[in-house]
């Protein structure tokens, strides 16, 4: 670690907001901790990071990010354990993905270890904000956006990296209804689907809203070219259990976000001796597996919920109803294993949890 990069100046707010928090009713992403971390990029290099009181960021009306979308983010969580420890889950994977998103959006990447260290430091400063309740967590939102005060279309010369934190309640996703989307597109080959960049989410709002109007929580995105292959479920990765094999779209496609949760589920399946196939997954194959009874489970995977069980798949004019998983099914066992791992209730042989 480069010594000069981890010297962080910390300034505190005059009063803490923590006593105002209603810990039993935490709306997602609307409650913020006392501090945030800020680091600016200018004159060709990242400047010293600072931890400052949480608050608004001044903005020039021509600020490049709001016009042309040079903006990327990450989403991760810190969990508290009964012994008072706070842990991050595989933060190095978020660091790697963050720097890959930077590269795709022509933004200046920085050291992955520094990313983890900055997240760790901020969480340490606001450690008493990590909810203690089982299932609850501190959501961590690191992001970078272009800050040039000019509307020429080119990569910004200046950027701001910020991390803020939100205590969030237990997110037990209700079982979801999804619709196979055959017209709108989330990501096209050669596009930015692999990057966690703001525009991808803006572009998905309209098709998602149409799906919701028809009773579906999320869309099952298919490939942009033929709409024959399933890629993701809303803002989660998609997994199927077919005849005892975990089947999930291959991350070789640059239309698919490389999720930490999905990667972890694949690792867990490997550990447990469950066969895994990471490859193209066609709509036709899934429909056939439902019809012949070999589709055992379908679920989305992401940091927010870990697992979102899919109970209904809309396809063209009809719906397929799937049975809810039982305790013995892979998705439920894997979720419990990961919950226990984060809570420190089971061994962590792979070193996935980093104690802050
Ligand atoms: C963030 C995200 C995921 C899930 O990634 P995790 O690292 O598991 O949280 C999947 N798909 C999309 C489009 C995402 O933005």
UniProtKB/TrEMBL annotation:
Belongs to the class-IV pyridoxal-phosphate-dependent aminotransferase family. This is branched-chain-amino-acid transaminase. Keywords: Amino-acid biosynthesis, Aminotransferase, Branched-chain amino acid biosynthesis, Pyridoxal phosphate, Transferase. It comes from the Bacteria. Pathway: Amino-acid biosynthesis; L-leucine biosynthesis; L-leucine from 3-methyl-2-oxobutanoate: step 4/4; Amino-acid biosynthesis; L-valine biosynthesis; L-valine from pyruvate: step 4/4; Amino-acid biosynthesis; L-isoleucine biosynthesis; L-isoleucine from 2-oxobutanoate: step 4/4. PANTHER family: BRANCHED-CHAIN-AMINO-ACID AMINOTRANSFERASE (PTHR11825:SF44), SUBGROUP IIII AMINOTRANSFERASE (PTHR11825). The keyword Ribosomal protein does not apply. Acts on leucine, isoleucine and valine. It comes from Taishania pollutisoli. Its EC number is 2.6.1.42. GO terms for molecular function: branched-chain-amino-acid transaminase activity. The modification N6-(pyridoxal phosphate)lysine is found at residue 196. InterPro entries: Aminotrans_IV, Aminotransferase-like, B_amino_transII, BCAT-like_C, BCAT-like_N, BCAT_family. Gene3D superfamilies: 3.30.470.10, D-amino Acid Aminotransferase, subunit A, domain 2. It catalyses: L-valine + 2-oxoglutarate = 3-methyl-2-oxobutanoate + L-glutamate; L-isoleucine + 2-oxoglutarate = (S)-3-methyl-2-oxopentanoate + L-glutamate; L-leucine + 2-oxoglutarate = 4-methyl-2-oxopentanoate + L-glutamate. GO terms for biological process: isoleucine biosynthetic process; L-leucine biosynthetic process; L-valine biosynthetic process. Its cofactor is pyridoxal 5'-phosphate.
């Amino acid at each position: 670690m480069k010594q000069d990069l981890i010297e962080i100046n910390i300034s505190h707010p005059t009063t803490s907001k923590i006593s105002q928090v209603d810990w039993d009713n935490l709306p997602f992403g609307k409650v913020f901790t006392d501090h945030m971390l800020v680091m600016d990029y200018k004159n060709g290099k990242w400047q010293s990071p600072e931890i400052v009181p949480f608050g608004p960021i001044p903005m020039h009306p021509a600020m490049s990010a709001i016009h042309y979308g040079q903006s990327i983010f990450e989403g991760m969580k810190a969990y508290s354990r009964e012994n008072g420890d706070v842990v991050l889950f595989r933060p190095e994977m978020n660091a790697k993905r963050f720097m890959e998103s930077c590269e795709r959006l022509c933004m200046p990447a920085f050291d992955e270890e520094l990313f983890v260290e900055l997240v760790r430091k901020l969480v340490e400063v606001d450690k008493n904000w990590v909810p203690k309740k089982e299932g609850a967590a501190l959501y961590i939102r690191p992001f970078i956006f272009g800050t040039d005060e000019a509307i020429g279309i080119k990569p910004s010369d200046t950027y701001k990296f910020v991390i803020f934190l939100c205590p969030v309640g237990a997110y037990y996703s209700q079982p979801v209804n999804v619709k196979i989307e055959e017209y709108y597109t989330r990501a096209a080959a050669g596009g930015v689907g692999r990057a966690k960049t703001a525009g991808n989410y803006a572009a998905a709002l309209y098709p998602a809203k149409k799906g919701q109007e028809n009773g579906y929580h999320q869309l099952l995105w298919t490939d942009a070219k033929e709409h024959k292959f399933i890629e993701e479920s809303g803002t989660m990765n998609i997994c199927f259990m077919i005849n005892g094999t975990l089947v999930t779209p291959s991350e070789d496609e640059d239309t698919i976000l490389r999720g930490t949760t999905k990667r972890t589920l694949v690792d867990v399946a490997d550990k447990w001796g469950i066969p895994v196939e990471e490859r193209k997954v066609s709509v036709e194959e899934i429909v056939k597996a439902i019809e012949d009874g070999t589709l055992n489970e379908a679920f989305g995977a992401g940091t927010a919920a870990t697992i979102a069980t899919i109970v209904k798949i809309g396809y063209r004019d009809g719906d397929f109803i799937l049975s809810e998983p039982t305790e013995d099914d892979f998705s439920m066992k894997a979720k419990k294993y990961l919950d226990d791992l984060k809570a420190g209730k089971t061994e962590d042989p792979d070193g996935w949890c980093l104690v802050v």
